[in-house]
4-hydroxy-tetrahydrodipicolinate synthase (Alcanivorax quisquiliarum), 282 residues
Amino acid sequence: MHADGSVDWERLRKVVDWHVEQGTGAIVSVGTTGESATLGFEEHDLVIRETISAARGRIPVIAGTGANSTEEAIRLTRDAQRAGADACLLVTPYYNKPTQEGLYQHYLAVAREVDIPQILYNVPGRTACDMLPETVLRLSKVPNIIGIKEATGNLERIRELLDRCGDGFLVYSGDDATAIESILLGGHGNISVTANVMPARMAEACAAALAGDADKARDLDATMRALHSDLFIESNPIPVKWALYEMGLIDRGIRLPLTPLSAPAQDTLRETLRSAGLLEVK
């Protein structure tokens, strides 16, 4: 976003090009790190369309279309399908805290209404709603629900999902600190925050883990450990957007109720970026 909060379409296209060049495997457009919560319907749809246009078929685009209203999630998912998205990522309904049956019915309704591959997204630390493995198992039997982004950071949860849902259901980590270990357990990849600022390294680490090269994957991951932590020094996406601004990739814009990264946190994160080789040492 520009400093005034308006969407910076030119920088959006440049960031997509950068990720393609860096070896990113797919882009999530309007994920929760993309400030989806502060975009209106038209902006949401426009960002997805512009991302797909910028990607030009070079890598898949997954559209973030989750909502705490089932009707709204259906609308966003349908719009993403019409725009040409390869798949959709749907966060669990936030604030209204549905039951497990409510979660099942919510996702089933979206899947039945829109015939596009859909990935569940469980991040109870942000939504106050935890989708349990038994619910995921039920949903894994829906043909166009193809996987889950599991962001609890709980490796036992990852193991349980892999054991219960079978090889045909994709289990992605949504927690950078445990992502490599998740893949080494049998997970299928990482939908990452850290990859927003260090995509090539994250892609290389995930590729090594997927190939079973645990030593290489862990060594690469160790070089990103401080980033995994400090990109959450304040609420995501405040730190990651500030980091990209410092790296010269985007403008400084962010929308209320999010605020720019505080000065003490800037000092900490700037040093972490320098240590990672992402900023020049001065």
Observations:
- The chain is about 50% helix and 10% strand.
- The domain at 9-222 is CATH 3.20.20.70 (TIM Barrel).
